[in-house]
Structures are given as structure tokens and as C-alpha cells.
Amino acid sequence: VQLQASGGGLVQAGGSLRLSCLASGLTFSTYVMGWFRQAPGKEREFVAAMRWSGGSTFYADSVRGRFTISRDNAKNTVYLQMNSLKPEDTAVYYCAGRSSGSIYVAGAYDSWGQGTLVTVSS
After folding, report:
1. Alpha-carbon span 35 to 10, nearest angstrom
2. Which residues pair with 49 in a beta bridge?
3. In this structure, what are the phi and psi dihedrals at residue 106, rounded to the nearest 5 degrees?
4. Which runs of consecutive H residues, i.e. helices, occur in 1-115?
5. CA-to-CA distance for 54 and 94, rounded, in angstroms?
6. How far apart are CA 117 and CA 38, in angstroms?
7. Which end of the chain has fewer CB atoms at under 10 Å, N or C?
8. Parallel, antiparallel, or unpaired for β 17-24 and 77-82?
9. What are the φ and ψ backbone dihedral angles of 28, each rounded to 5 degrees?
10. What's the CA gap between 57 and 116, in Å, rounded?
């Protein structure tokens, strides 16, 4: 699976952004698509994930209620709608895919996009 993320940028606190992740070569019905982020000097952390088949969603506590993960099957694209952004949301955001293992652990994901930078100013 090849992943291509886009949509990052600079936004003021309280604003919104939508990230997109185009997936090619996706064939497994049990596949999970996830979003992770990594701030400077910090470890990569789980943000949100969705089962490609069925659409179950999973969120980190820090973003639940503000971020929404969704997909467009026809476009093989996963989105991360980010609302009420905070300066602490500033990070490089990565989309990733995995066919097995923990949904919440970066090491379980075997396909990664190139990352897109989100900067939230105060």
C-alpha cells in the first residue's frame, strides 16, 4: 500500500484543517487506516484510526470531540477533519496503514505516508 498525505498548513488557534490521505494498492478488507502525529522532540503518537471495512473509528483522548476521521471508498481516501485546533496540535501528521496488530501503536503499521505539517498559532 502506498499512502500520500496532504492538507497541512498554518492556522490560528480555534481554526480548522482537513487532512487527506490517498491510498493505492489497498486490498485487505481488514485494513485499518490511521493518523499519527509527531511534534518536535516528542515521540510519534496515535491520533485516530478507522477500519476500512465497517468504518469503526478510534480516537486519542486528546482529540476526541474535535477531530473526525472519515473515508471515501470511491476515492480510496481517508480524511482527518480537525476542528477547534490548539497550539499543542502542532506537529507533522502522518497517515499510516496496517493489516494486523494494535490500532494504537505506530510499530504495528507497515505503510506510511510522507507526513504533512500542521502549525497552529496562538
Report:
1. 18
2. 34, 58
3. -60, -35
4. none
5. 22
6. 9
7. C
8. antiparallel
9. -90, 125
10. 21
Cβ neighbours of 84 (radius 10 Å): 13
Mean pLDDT of 77-99: 96
Which amino acid type is present at position 61? D
pLDDT at 29 over 60: no
Q: How many helices (H) and strands (E) does the chain have?
A: 0, 11
Beta bridge partners of 52: none
Q: Three-class SS of residue 85? A: coil
pLDDT bin (cut points 50, 70, 90) of residue 107 is very high
| DSSP code at position 23 | E
Q: Do 21 and 31 touch, CB atoms closer than 8 A? A: no
User: Is pLDDT at 88 greater than 70 in this prediction?
Assistant: yes
- Angstrom CA distances, 12 to 4, 28, 39, 117, stand at 25, 38, 17, 14
Q: Is the dihedral of CA 45, 50, 51, 56 positive or negative?
A: positive
